[in-house]
Amino acid sequence: MSSTTPRLPGTYVFDAAENRRGRALNRLCGSLKDAGNRERFTADEAAYCETYGLTAEQRDAVLRRDWNRMMELGGSIFYVFKLAMVDQKSMQYLGGVFTGMTTEEFAQALKAGGRNFG
Amino acid sequence: MTWGLATSHVPSIGAAMDHGKTQDPYWKPLFDGYAPAREWMARHTPDIAVVVYNDHANAVDMSVTPAFALGTAESYRVADEGWGSRPVPAVTGAPEFSDHLVKSLIDASFDLTVYQELDVDHGLTVPLSVYCPDPGERWPCAVVPLLVNVIQYPQPTAARCLALGRALGEAVRSFPEDLKVAVFGTGGMSHQLAGARAGLINQDFDRMFLDAIEHDPEKLAALTREEYIREAGSEGIELIMWLIMRGALGPRIRRVHEAYHVPASNTAAGMVLFENLSR
């Protein structure tokens, strides 16, 4: 069995290389599970990004809440979701963003049996 | 080894229980589906449950990614995942039993990472709540956490998971004390949280898996990681953890109950309960 990371359209496959690429971003998002860090982040988001050594692109994606871009820059959904929770956004909200739907449309697609890909 | 439970561990299933929403129209079908399994398990309380699960960026960060890890602590705190800890009891461990499993499994050439301290997140506590919705002050059994890397590619192969389960079953049976042990395989079913394929649900694959986990686990062990990710989604690969549960059971099992429901938040939710007939 090959361990070449699969390339599947519309799917992020998080491997060790992605882990390295997204490390600062994921560390920042992961830190937000602590209330004190959430306060520090909320008080000055840009400064908080500086302390975690984000690249300029990662910082901009965080500040603009560009969830798709965060994923493209090595974000792991389990970390990025912690930033969404700070904004009180649900996983269904993110599902809508990732698929170009409103939260309601995404939730309805799931209620109707989910999205099917052949 | 008395029984094996496979169940999804979607956080919102725990939240629905914690916030009294189990009778809401959205959640009622899911929890109604659990009811017969819960009744049966309440009459067959184990002394120890081995819960196979994965952490979700709570106790384990990505600076280290153990393929397989086992908890050997006396107790495990419930993790704060960013919205406060779930209002459920701390988890009591079974350190001597854990030590035995570590020795047995490493002797069997499964090189486990060992956790002496571990906060357990929804991956472990939601399955416990699926088993026992109202634990009161304490869970009805001690717990041994068995963690699997399902987040970072390459995950362990499905075949390796089935083999680990078989070794786990042998390790449990060789423990000198006469204890009743249950094993939980958690996570799955089809789901993908991010990317343009987010919201993927493949009911055909899930139904096939629910059937084959009983009758033909070798068929599931032969699937590649790419097939799991393609068919069940990038997070649907969590299904490999069900194979550890299945491998731990003996050759003779009986399906007590199964349930399948779409959706639980962004995913399909599955459950299947097996009684182990070969002790």
TrEMBL record, chain A:
It holds the Pfam family LigA. Gene3D superfamilies: Dioxygenase LigAB, LigA subunit. Keywords: Dioxygenase, Oxidoreductase. One of its GO terms (molecular function) is dioxygenase activity. The keyword Repeat does not apply. InterPro entries: LigA_sf, PCA_LigA, Xdiol_dOase_LigA. This is Protocatechuate 4,5-dioxygenase alpha subunit. It comes from Streptomyces lincolnensis. The lineage of its organism: Bacteria, Bacillati, Actinomycetota, Actinomycetes, Kitasatosporales.
From TrEMBL, chain B:
It comes from the Bacteria. Gene3D superfamilies: LigB-like. GO terms for molecular function: ferrous iron binding; oxidoreductase activity, acting on single donors with incorporation of molecular oxygen, incorporation of two atoms of oxygen. Keywords: Dioxygenase, Oxidoreductase. This is Protocatechuate 4,5-dioxygenase beta subunit.
